[in-house]
Each structure stands twice: as structure tokens, then as C-alpha cells.
Fold each of these.
Amino acid sequence: MKKILVYFSKGEWGLWMGSVCLILTAFFLFDRASRLTLVASLIGVTSLLFNAKGNPVGQVLMILFSLLYGVISYGFSYYGEMITYLGMTAPMALVALIAWLRHPYRGNRAQVAVGHLQRGEVWLLAGLTAVVTGLFYFILAALGTAGIGFSTLSVTTSFIAVYLTFRRSPYFAVAYAANDVVLIVLWVIAARTDMAYLSVVICFVVFLVNDLYGFISWRRMEKRQRG
């Protein structure tokens, strides 16, 4: 316990506790029933804290969050989110976990070595993203997915995020932040039908703040490792 307390900075503990308080407040104000959403939100925000430190534990928690979020999305017919998280984010988080464990920084398995994209790899990513986006659009259309435009955009941002996570690029956090913005819009639409989903909206607002911090943290980590 003492090691955990000193592992995170006071600012990081403040960010985590503030995030947890907002999630709990939103749950008791707008939901009170969907405990699965609450548990998923708490696991998700905790995974972001570990990810910001480059700790593989964050990827383990992301796998668990993806499974729970997939179930939640199914309940509102957001099949794009369900397929994205169960069929792409969770498996890619597992691949990223393996990659992070295989690339520790100077033998320290609690911190991954920061990577970067190779020359020309950006074009490969762009091509793969276009193919995945197009494929998912037709799948989602066939399933009658609610909010198909934003759902498809969520697939795009999610794929970029998981690819950059696997490649250990600091910009994975920026891609996840973009995905958070899309999800905020999606769940605001859902909240117009059921106010309980406002708790999910608050969850992704919290995730957005944490992902932005994650990018800042990784940039600092990159400078330390290469300095």
C-alpha cells in the first residue's frame, strides 16, 4: 500500500479522486440503478491513471472496461460501440499489453519504453483506418445502429487509438481524447431519451480530462527516457 501511495504524485491522486467523486455524484444523481455502468466507469478511470504512467496494469484494466462497456452499449443498441470495444479495443488492449510487457524501460516492467512511428507508418495507419472505417460503416448500417454517423467516427478514433497504444506512441492519448468527444456526443443523444445516461456522459467527460493528462504525462516520460 505504501508503494502505491508514493507511486502516484499528489496531483495524480487528486485527479483520480476528483474523477471518482464526479463519477459517483453523477451515478447517484442521474442513475442509481445501473451498477454495471458505475463499476465500468471506475475501472476505466483507474486504467487511465495507470496508462498515464506507462504501466501495463492500465491495459489489463482497459480489457476489463472494454468488456463491460460492450455490454452497456448493447443495452442501448449502440452496436458500433459494442463491436468496437468487444471486437477491437479489448483484443488490441491485449496485444498492447504484450507489447508493453516486452518493451520495459531499462528492465522496469512498471514503465514501458516510449516508442514512435517509423517513417511511412503514418500512411499505413491512414490506409488501415480507412479500410476499417469503411468496413464497419456497412456492418453498422446492416445492424440498424443508432447514431450511425457518430458510431462510425467512434470506430475511426478508436482504431487509431489502439494502434498508437500498441506502438507505444504518446499520441495514443490524443486519439482516445478525440474518441471521448465522440462518445460524449453519442451518450448525450442517448440521455435525451433516458436521463440515466447522463452518468455515462459525465464518465466520458472525466475520461477526456484524464486522457489529456495522459498525453502530457507521456510527453514528459518521453523526454526523461530520451534525455
Amino acid sequence: MRSVYLSARGYDSHFQEDSVGQNGPGGIITKVGLDTFVDPRLSGGKMNSLTREKGEDLIKLVEWQGETYLFYKRPMISTCVLSCSTADEKGNVTTEKELTPTGLSMAISCKTNGGRVIVQVKRYTQAGTLNSRMVTIPHIFVDHVVLEKPEHRLFRQFPEWGLTELNPAWTGEIRVPLETLKPMPHGLEKVAARVALECITPGSVVNFGFGLPSSVMYIACTEENMMDLVTSALEIGIIGGVPGIEQQFALCTNADAVIPSDYMFDNIWGGGIDHAFLSFGEIDEYGNVNVSRFGNAIIGPGGFIDISHNAKNLCFLGTFTSGVVEADCAQGQLKIRKDGTVLKFKKRVQEITFNSRRALSYGERRIRVATERALFEVTEDGLILTKIAPGIDLEKDILEKMEFRPLISRDLKTLDHRIYRPEPIGIREKLLAERDEQKDSRP
């Protein structure tokens, strides 16, 4: 959920009219989050015994115009620390060498609350030398400017990313040929991403979540020649281009445009996403998803609740089990030699981050679950198994690895054998042919 001042709202969210005070609205009311763990009827977002016993109720259930909403109290931000590029002597700031231009809304929210805004920059310049159109945070919203030292730069602090310098293709200074991007190694995760790739509709605006879902767009762009068929719109504000995978998720190559993250959430809340590909940690027989809590480990939802509530179509993506899995998936079929010990298809999820029945109640939308060995459809009757991988034993490799027995389609199909080969699968031609068939079948 966002912790910044919300400047615009989607079709089902509104300012809480009677909470507008001297420094702006006291919060918003929205349907986003109903029947998930942030709903006060479940846990109200309270993550431990201390917050449950003594914590403030930051989220409340309210009735507005005869419908049920959640009220989210506006957080009172007292300090804001931002990473930017250039600052002049007055404190005007630019973000030309940043991955995204996020910062202005947070700075305004902090300043209107009487807080301090601290900006770290890579360089100083003389007052009056910055192009006014390049200034993303004006000096009236900045209190302190700090010049970063080389050893404090982002990539020096995260050596596990395997990076040492900022690639100018990530900041829009240059564009690179797609042939220079390395293909994703063939394995179970790539196979799962390929299964999900079949869920894309040509011409869609698509959101991809962190982790395995980002591989879907990476494969589509680098191996399947689909950059002209779909446009990515990531929650961090990146539109188009090739998003990085895993820890390099925010490092997008050849983006079409980059906007502030809060503007992208305005687009998401307004229903501007056709398809969203999101991870799942646990999923139950109804299609409820948990990505936010596992045992005592609190992961948090990030933008997951906002995106899953508002996207027109959803595909939850992950490997079928967790743990060490040994499998052969390069000869046109899938053979599991050793399976993971952690089951992800649960009778009940530990925490509901996505409520399938609530999502389905908002009208026509398609919700699917893609793994390396099976594709499911989420319906009002529960989870339906629609496709399985060639070479998979339905009982041993799927049903015995679930805490519940899903519904099984009478027309159970086999996934395309090309998914399980190292070379590109030619999904572009298949999707275009399916689109043309749908056009021809219309009256």
C-alpha cells in the first residue's frame, strides 16, 4: 500500500471528506484491501501481538453511499530521505541519472506535515544553470542536500546484484540492441514463465511483479520478439522496455517512458492494467493467495494488493513446490526426479493477501495460476486444473503435492511441448493466430 500523499484516485476510491484538515486529507476510503489481511474484520494489517494489543487502528471499516469501504489513515511523515542526481545552490533537484523520478509527492507530503526533506545527490551545480523543465523537486520542498561519496553509491552496497556501475541504458541515456541481453537460463523457473506467457493478449498493457513474474516480460522481449505486442507498466513507474529479472527488477533497459511511481498507481487504481502477473507463495482451494507472511517472517505486500484488486486479468506465477527440485525439462516434456518438500497449494493460506471471491465479485475478469507443471483457472467454484505438462504424472506430481483436490477440467489439455525445450517457442505467432480467430468468430 502507498505511504505517500495520494494526489489522484481510481474509480472506487475517494478522499474522506470529513477528515480534510489544514494540511490536506486525513486519509482515503477505498475498496482496495477488502477481505484481505488489511481488513479490520481479519487483522487490520496488524502484524504482531504488540500492534494487536496496543497499536492504533490505522485502517477502519466505513459505509459510504450504501457500500462498504476501508478508510486508510494518512501517515504523518516527519522525515523524507531521497536519492537524486543534481542539485543547484538553491536546492532545486533533478533525477536524470536515477532509475525512476520518484520523490516529489513524498517530499510534498513530508513538507505539508512540517517535516524535513533530505536529498542525496551525485553532484552540485551553480544556481540558475538547471533547465527548469528538468527540475523534479523544487527547492521549496528541500531542507538539506548531501553530496554522496563514491563508496555510498547504490551498486557498491549490493554486490550480490553482480553490478558495479549504473548502465546508461537504464537511465534512458542510450538504447542498446536487444541481442546484447543474455537469454534467461533454461530451467524450471523459465518453464513456469513460459506457461504464463500464453496468458498474454496482444495489445495489452501488462504489469509484472517482482521475482519470477518479471521473467515473463524478459523472455517475451529477448527471445519471442513481442515488444510490439505488449507494453509493460511497472509499479515503480517504468513504461515499456525490458525489465530486469530477480534483484535487477527495477533496472529496465530501453524504457519508453518513466513516470513517478505514485502516478503509475493512479493508473493502476483507475483500471489501466489489462493483465497483471504476480507471484504466489501460498494458494488455497478457492484461489486466495498469500505473499505477505510465512511463519514468523513478515514479507509485506508492497503494491500487490493495489495491483491484484484493480487489474482486469490476473495470472499468479510460481513453481509448484518450494525447496530443492531436480527435474528434466529440456526434451519437450517435464520429468520430476526429486520434488520440493514445501507444499504451496494449501487447504488454507496463512494470510490472505488476495481474496479471489472478492475479486470475482467485481465483474468479468480472468484469474489463472501458472506453474512449471500445471495451469489452473480460478472460478467461483474454486481452483480448476486446465492444463498439465507433457511427461507429468497427474496423481503423483500434482494431486499428491496439494493439500486439497482441485476441480479437474473435463477437457484437460497438455501444455505445448515447445515450452520444455531450450530454443524459443514461437509464442508470437500462436498468440496472433488466436487473436485473429477470436476476431473472425465475432458476429
